Amino acid sequence: MKIYFQPEADLVQFASTLSELNADAEVGSILVFACDENGWLPADLDPLLQGSAKPVFGGIFPQIIHGLQNFTQGAVCVGLQGEPAWGLVGQLSDEGANYDQPLTALADAWDALSGPATLLVLVDGLAGRIASLTESLFFSFGLDNNFIGGGAGSLSFQQRPCLLTPQGLVADAALVVRLPVYSGVGVNHGWQPITEPLKVTSSLKNQVKCLDWKPAFEAYRQVVENHSGVQFTENNFFDIAKSYPLGINKLDTEMIVRDPLMLNEQGDMVCVGEVPEGCFVRILNGSPESLVSAAADARARAEKVFPHTDRRAPEVALFIDCISRVLFLEDGIEKEFASVTTELPLFGAFTLGEIANSGQDYLEFYNKTAVVGLLAEPPADEVAP
């Protein structure tokens, strides 16, 4: 893998990097993580994406990661030696859309492919049915592959094109890429419950309307204000809520965290990802120490499940981390980076939700969670001509 980084929103420089990677005989495809603050529009990117001789995949995120730093402008471009199979699933907010059919078709087609495979899944993080798509991914592909990815988009919470594909920049979709790499994936979050379970008595996709038959925000507000000593106002919902996510209770697994983003016009709590009606949630809180410890544990889990051999060891660390974790940790985010790796090249993104499993657990769409992927390309003699 060849990692190129630019710290500025310079479209000319980005085009030059794509040209350099296109001219490299050892590169078969290009992975791009770019920043929302770049202000790159479809009119800017589509000619570059559609005109690239080698396929370009990726997303536009609130922040990106390179080395042991986070950036609000710039881009990371990664040259991969293989040309991956890929698919695009649209209508990610459409209540009537069926994701099983296109994903099963991809799974059936990819079964015949040889070599290592890690599925990169990038979604429009502001779409309404990401958890439904993730469930369809699991039932279509099963436990045969590792998954890693997350939600692209903007902290303005305005949905707009944010996924880079060979066809151009798209919105309200999911990009699934079969990366020809070995991987180990680890997941942890570090948030702890401060309430007993509350029943979600009314919800619609990612909108939580009632908890224990009370208006959801009324129940949430009472707990959070008492615990934090801070009062909600018209303008500070996310500033407080970033420290108090919801945790969905799951059998035989950690709670799945949901990040409350805002209140809609009806006063319902809008989250990143669906919160099913009838499920039980707890209100969570964490400390900088618990979050950094969770990231270190995610790295340890990734190391444990990476398929080590005498000829194979991790080459790079891909870090998918929730944007609200950096907003919570602020300068302390550097401790998370150091806990993830000090010896491997590190790149990644701060996302609107995280997608992962290790090929051993149920695939989930997470919020406020640290996901570490240790990646390695196959040796040259394993690559099909």
Automatic annotation (TrEMBL):
Q: Name one Pfam family in it.
A: FIST_C
Which residue numbers delimit the FIST C-domain domain?
216-358
For the FIST domain, which residue ranges apply? 28-215
Assigned keywords, A-Z: Kinase, Transferase
Kinase in keyword set:
yes
What terms describe the molecular function in GO for this protein?
Answer: kinase activity
Q: Which PANTHER family match?
A: BLR0328 PROTEIN (PTHR40252)
Q: What is this protein called?
A: Histidine kinase
Q: Which organism is it from?
A: Nitrincola tapanii
Please name the taxonomic classification of the source: Bacteria, Pseudomonadati, Pseudomonadota, Gammaproteobacteria, Oceanospirillales
